């Protein structure tokens, strides 16, 4: 019924010339079936019940369709012209009016969007994968701090900061065209079943960003000895340029089949050396030896820590950011409530998989100031060391003098 009505609005169906005359001859008393439409006579008047078609509307206005042209023959009998191709063409004026209405409505909506005021922070694309800057040696990416990335202090958690560092490192390798398989493996590394693993990490946090802030992360790589690579990060407020976080890390290669450390093959060195910067670390190396804790020297111990499936990375071992969360599991609650993590030094000694069960040990050092230092150890239940660490804590809301940081110039 709907299809018939729609079709008839563009292709009106006209009755045959003798239809009017024949109807008059056939109409009489009683009920007559006209193709399913019943008619009855009541009090001498003929009442016909039919489905009336409502006039079409365009933009809320009724459109009146002119009646079909009627002709009369020599005997004065009315008839419609014969159906031809010309008089069966649709009423294009109705179609054009509908199209015009749609375009006008779309243009109005577009202009309303264009009139909205633009804020400076709206010009920053926090969803892009970043870009290569400074002669192709530095990778830069922006991140918008989400509501699910902040903690009880209404600031981004240390895990959020570390995830941003890891993401930019991978995107840097991908943008350089060296990301083939695994986390940052180059084509030659894939041929030799080699992957990168971090052995040492130093992080200094001057200020944690808050919800809605946009941070700019710059990262680059440098040589470190004969078989290692150093990666540095500089995190700044995208609006002010204030330095928020500085981090430096050392990476070595491991055979993903034997799970043993490997020397850097010359073929791999040839792939990555063109991307090295000859610069100093953004964090001065802390040469103090990390303390090995045991049951007698540790003040706080958290046992029974197990990785979830989501804690594993594509290389099938626990993501290094998860280790940071584990060492903080044994940090005393009073410190977490009154202080915030300002720096940490981590040494990764052994990987762990999904079946590992770990213990977190912490010892607190009292240096007589408002700042607190903690020693950490993460170990397997069997006793093997997974990671050693040292963390520095400052009182919350402490005034930190922020500096406008610059990327170290390449002195190569």
Structural class: alpha+beta
What value does the Rg take, in angstroms?
39 Å
CATH A-level architecture of the domain at 126-285: Roll
> Biggest β-sheet: count, sense, barrel?
12 strands, antiparallel
Give the helix level as a range of percent.
Answer: 10-25%
Number of helices: 8
What is the terminal separation in angstroms? 80 Å
CATH superfamily of the domain at 126-285: Hotdog Thioesterase
Q: In CATH terms, what is the fold-level topology of the domain at 126-285?
A: Thiol Ester Dehydrase, Chain A
What general form does the structure show? Answer: elongated
Function: Plays an essential role in chain termination during de novo fatty acid synthesis.
Pfam family, one: Acyl-ACP_TE_C
Subcellular location: Plastid, Chloroplast
Domain Acyl-ACP-thioesterase N-terminal: 1-125
What's the helix and strand layout?
Layout: H1 2-10, H2 19-26, E1 32-34, E2 37-42, E3 45-48, E4 57-58, E5 61-62, E6 71-72, E7 78-79, H3 92-114, E8 131-133, E9 138-144, H4 158-175, H5 187-191, E10 194-205, E11 214-224, E12 228-237, E13 243-255, E14 261-262, H6 266-272, E15 300-305, H7 320-327, H8 333-338, E16 339-348, E17 358-365, E18 372-380, E19 385-395
Antiparallel strand pairs: 1-2, 2-3, 4-5, 6-7, 8-9, 9-11, 10-13, 10-16, 11-12, 12-13, 13-14, 15-17, 16-19, 17-18, 18-19
């Amino acid at each position: 019924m709907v299809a018939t009505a729609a079709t008839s609005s563009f292709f009106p169906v006209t009755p045959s010339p003798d239809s009017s005359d024949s109807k008059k001859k056939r109409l009489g008393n009683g009920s007559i079936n006209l193709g399913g439409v019943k008619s009855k006579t009541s009090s001498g008047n003929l009442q016909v019940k039919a489905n009336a078609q409502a006039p079409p509307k365009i933009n809320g206005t009724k459109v009146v369709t002119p009646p079909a042209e009627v002709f009369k023959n020599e005997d004065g009998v009315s008839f419609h012209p014969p159906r031809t191709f010309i008089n069966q063409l649709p009423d294009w004026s109705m179609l054009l009016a509908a199209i015009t209405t749609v375009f006008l409505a779309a243009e109005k909506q577009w202009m309303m969007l264009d009139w909205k005021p633009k804020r400076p922070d709206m010009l920053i694309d926090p969803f892009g994968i970043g870009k290569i800057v400074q002669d192709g040696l530095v990778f830069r990416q922006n991140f918008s701090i989400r509501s699910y990335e902040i903690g009880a202090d209404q600031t981004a958690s240390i895990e959020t900061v570390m995830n941003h560092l890891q993401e930019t490192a991978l995107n840097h390798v991908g943008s350089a065209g060296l990301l083939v398989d695994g986390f940052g493996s180059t084509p030659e590394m894939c041929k030799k079943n080699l992957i990168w693993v971090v052995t040492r990490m130093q992080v200094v946090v001057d200020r944690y960003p808050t919800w809605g802030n946009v941070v700019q992360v710059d990262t680059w790589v440098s040589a470190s000895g004969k078989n290692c690579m150093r990666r540095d990060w500089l995190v700044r407020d995208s609006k002010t340029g204030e330095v928020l976080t500085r981090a430096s890390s050392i990476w070595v290669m491991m055979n993903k089949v034997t799970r043993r450390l490997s020397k850097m093959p010359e073929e791999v060195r040839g792939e990555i050396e063109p991307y090295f910067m000859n610069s100093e670390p953004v964090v001065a190396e802390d040469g103090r030896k990390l303390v090995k804790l045991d049951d007698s020297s540790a003040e706080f111990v958290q046992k029974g820590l197990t990785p979830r499936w989501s804690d594993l990375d594509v290389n099938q071992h626990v993501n290094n950011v998860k280790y940071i969360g584990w060492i903080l599991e044994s940090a005393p609650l009073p410190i977490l409530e009154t202080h915030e993590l300002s720096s940490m030094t981590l040494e990764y000694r052994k990987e762990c998989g999904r079946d590992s069960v770990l213990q977190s040990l912490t010892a607190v050092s009292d240096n007589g100031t408002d700042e607190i230092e903690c020693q950490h150890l993460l170990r397997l239940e069997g006793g093997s060391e997974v990671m050693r660490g040292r963390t520095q804590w400052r009182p919350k809301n402490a005034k930190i003098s922020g500096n406008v940081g610059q990327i170290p110039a390449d002195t190569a």
